[in-house]
Design goal:
Glucose Oxidase, domain 1; nucleotide-binding; alpha/beta; amino-acid biosynthesis; single chain; 25% helix; seven-stranded mixed barrel; globular; pyrimidine biosynthesis; 10 helices; 391 residues; Rossmann fold
């Protein structure tokens, strides 16, 4: 592995004009994106390969990164998705027996431009003060560009608000993972940036998991005779995903049980008739406290989102789009953000966080069981209604 002291110079430039010098890490060149920070102390490989980080330059607040290297088994998807990567102290050696390559080499192989040696605490405090902003990492020849030119390039980059990134991360064709154990039926998963851990958890609950491209239609989904539907996590602005909202309304109209995670939570909120909005700096990490209002239990959760649902935190309200009563089921305790929605008159619920959380925590993994039980209860009720109707 190349020593930090001998690598090329690099610079992180934020759209407010602030500059943070460092050393090149990963691929050389220029990368642009929304600069965000992730607070997880572990799980950097899962973060990097989570498709919902597409379009974002991720800063790790943990100071020492890379000591366990990278391996194919722990990847959440087929590649690294972050737009860029910012670390303070990259490990000079890899010291885990499962490692197959260094983090530096893996970033370079996937063309991810990063920067190391940055005062990540200073950058995090700046984002906490003024909010997430566009930024650029310039290394190699690009590091020598005039400072004003670098800032111009950053300020001309697209903002995350209004961006639809689903097509960039979704599968190109349907992929099927067979059920494990007692089979319940076919589950239609819309891939908006799904993680492998999600597919594994759903298959383990007895579903034949059919992962659909984000361009799927209601007809495509109903053609597999699904027992339920699922929307995954993913990147981008939910307000820019009108087609996915209309698809979800078609799924709800077909009376299919539904479960959504993260981006899927925001799209369920929109399908029910609520708005969404951009958070100042988002929630990213594996230590976010969430209150389950039904049980009073506080869960420590894994999260990655920059947008949230705008819905009343207390009481029940009628769905503006006619889907009956709705309540906010989970609340973030750091800033009172909607962390879950439950429909009371149709079989549908969603959460803003990641219950699959391959790097942990696993407090919310029971939600996959809750989804399975909701589907089996719905199937049983329909079977009983059919029998009574035949008498």
């Amino acid at each position: 592995m190349t020593s930090l002291l001998t690598t090329d110079p690099a610079v992180l430039v934020l759209e407010d004009g602030s500059r943070h010098p460092g050393r090149a890490y990963g691929a050389r060149g220029t990368t642009l994106g929304e600069v965000v920070f992730a607070t997880g102390m572990t799980g950097y490989q899962e973060t990097l390969t989570d498709p919902s980080y597409a379009g974002q330059i991720v800063l790790q607040t943990a100071p020492h990164i890379g000591n366990t290297g990278m391996n194919a088994e722990d990847r959440e998807s087929r590649r690294i998705w972050v737009a860029g990567y910012i670390v303070r102290d990259p490990s000079r050696i890899v010291s885990n027996w499962r490692s197959e390559e260094s983090l530096d080499d893996s970033l370079a192989a996937d063309g991810i431009v990063g920067i190391s040696g940055v005062d990540t605490r200073a950058v995090t405090r700046r984002i906490r003060s003024v909010g997430s902003m566009r930024g650029g990492v310039f290394s190699g020849d690009a590091a020598a560009l005039d400072a004003e030119e670098q800032l111009r390039i950053v300020r001309e980059a697209p903002e995350m608000t209004g961006r639809n990134l689903s097509a960039e991360v979704s599968v190109a064709a349907v992929e099927v993972t067979p059920a494990q154990g007692e089979r319940i039926g076919n589950l239609a998963v819309l891939d908006l940036g799904v993680k492998q851990a999600t597919i594994v958890n759903l298959a383990a609950r007895g579903f034949d998991v059919h992962v659909f491209p984000q361009s799927a239609t209601v007809e495509d989904i109903l053609a597999i005779d699904p027992v339920a539907a699922f929307y995954s996590n993913g990147p981008g602005d939910p307000a820019a995903s009108d087609a996915h909202v209309q698809l979800l309304r078609g799924i709800l109209d077909a009376k299919l049980p539904f479960f959504g995670i993260c981006f899927g939570n925001q799209l369920l909120g929109r399908a029910l008739g609520f708005g969404t909005y951009k958070l100042p700096f988002g929630h990213r990490g594996i230590n976010q406290p969430v209150l389950d209002k039904a049980t009073g239990r506080v869960e420590i959760t894994s999260q990655n989102h920059g947008f949230a649902v705008d819905a009343p935190l207390e009481g029940t309200v009628d769905s503006p789009h006619g889907y009956g009563r709705v309540e906010v089921s989970h609340i973030g305790l750091n800033d009172q953000v909607v962390e879950g929605i439950r429909a009371l008159d149709i079989p549908a619920f969603s959460v803003q966080y990641h219950p699959e959380a391959a790097a942990g925590p696993h407090d919310a993994n029971y939600l996959f069981d809750r989804f399975r039980d909701m589907v089996t209860d719905t199937l049983s009720a329909r079977h009983n209604d059919a029998q009574e109707g035949g008498l």
